[in-house]
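Q: What changes when flavin-adenine dinucleotide is included in the input?
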Amino acid sequence: MGRIKIDEVSDKYDVIVAGSGLAGLTSANILAKNGNKVLLVEQHFLLGGLATYFKRKNHIFDVSLHGFPIGMKKTLRRYWSQDMADRIVQVKGVRFDNPQFSFETDFTKEDFTKKLVAQFDLEQEVVDAFYKELADMNYYDQNDMKTKDLFEKFFPGRNDVMRLLMEPITYANGSTVNEPAITYGIVFSNFMSKGCYTFEGGTDKMLEMMEAELTKNGVDILLRSRFEKAKIEDGKIVGAIVAGKDIACDSVMSNGNIISTIKEWVGEEHFSEEFLAKVKPVRINNSSCQVYMGFKPGEKIDYIGDLLFTSNCPEYSSDKLLSKDITSRTYSVYYPELRPDAEPDYTVVASTNANYDDWACLSEEDYKRDKQKMIDDTIAALDKYIPGVADKIDYVEAATPKTFEHYTLAPGGTSFGTKFEGLDISMNLHKQVGGLFHAGSVGIIMSGWLGAANYGVITANNVDRYLFGLNK
Ligand SMILES: Cc1cc2nc3c(=O)[nH]c(=O)nc-3n(C[C@H](O)[C@H](O)[C@H](O)COP(=O)(O)OP(=O)(O)OC[C@H]3O[C@@H](n4cnc5c(N)ncnc54)[C@H](O)[C@@H]3O)c2cc1C
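A: The predicted holo structure follows.
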């Protein structure tokens, strides 16, 4: 069906998918393809959640299109379309520049291994043993090892090696060395295999293609409409209130934050004491800040790499990476080749991990001042890589954790859902309330575009099984 208005919704749906992040979009598409009647509800005026973009002046800024593993190609081919899969292209160069090392890599396992042996002077056998340990990790194994213990086991005292192996992962999913090693192992094994990829045409093109696919498969899409409350009878989903309207449905697939889902969308009274005791310690993940810079028409950026991990901090430190006193920035450089069909345009997005509280506690005046300082410092820092950059830019904008909170309603403006302990809660919601499911960036393993989309696939299959059982 495609986009509809609130007064056009049907009386009854098999499933309401609440939230159109990559997990919500992918779930909705699979469920509709499998013949279910699906309503996709999104509070924002755009689909995509964090995977989004915005247009200012003559620029299109991608918010979170920087890079993902090759697995994204298979996911798009199997669950979206071949045309979309064909747009996955390799990012040419990833550069590191910090006081400990400076080089470019294609982000493949081969190149990483070469650098670890030749530049970091490690034994090939040690590197191989490290990879093997990662590859053998299994989510279902009980293992209390932390990521920092894993590094200490294989590369004792080597802060430089930890920086190389950890910095891209911290950037990609906000995790630190204090998380369980399994979260690192799975993400690293996914990421560091065949290089880093991106979507040709940008996030705007990807979302346009996804919407066309959803429409073709019969999903009703309701934008600017908030999922307010799930309706439950005899321990089962029977409907929902969306934008003030009662809609009957047999199941709800939440793509919102897992804590908000339990506490606000459903209500704690519907969960067992035992389950709620496990929900209590679930931590919201950290957030990020970004500075978006658009270049004047006719200005060019000579190739400086596609992704640049930079830092002036002498050593790798998880705390420093999150600090408001920014020492590390990851620049994503968008050359005109990203959008071959559009007018040539260069943009750069500088990202840093961030703590919500550092920004949320500020007065309006201090917030404005600190945001401006972040912009000024970022432009000054970028001058090292693009000399004279301040004069080349014609538009600049910044986002903080408060911006993410505003646009996605995610508590704490989290860019990465919850920490690892949230995954078990997310996967077991349906055992508490019949027909209630969750998919989305959670537990680090399932974060990022690929993780969220793949989690959407897993949950769609569970929803399908539940609906099939009801109709038997
Ligand atoms: C700055 C930044 C850079 C990133 N870079 C990368 C990268 O390079 N590569 C990568 O793979 N990943 C990256 N990510 C992470 C990636 O974007 C996310 O992990 C992924 O998009 C999350 O998808 P999700 O399905 O969890 O949903 P989300 O994106 O969290 O979407 C949830 C949706 O639910 C909606 N919603 C919330 N409440 C309601 C409600 N009550 N009613 C209706 N709708 C509601 C929200 O509006 C939102 O659209 C980045 C993230 C950020 C913030």
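Observations recorded in class: The pocket of flavin-adenine dinucleotide is lined by residues 18-24, 41-44, 49-51, 63-64, 66-68, 172, 226-227, 255-256, 288, 290, 351, 408-410, 415-417, 440-441, 447-450, 452 (CB under 6 Å).
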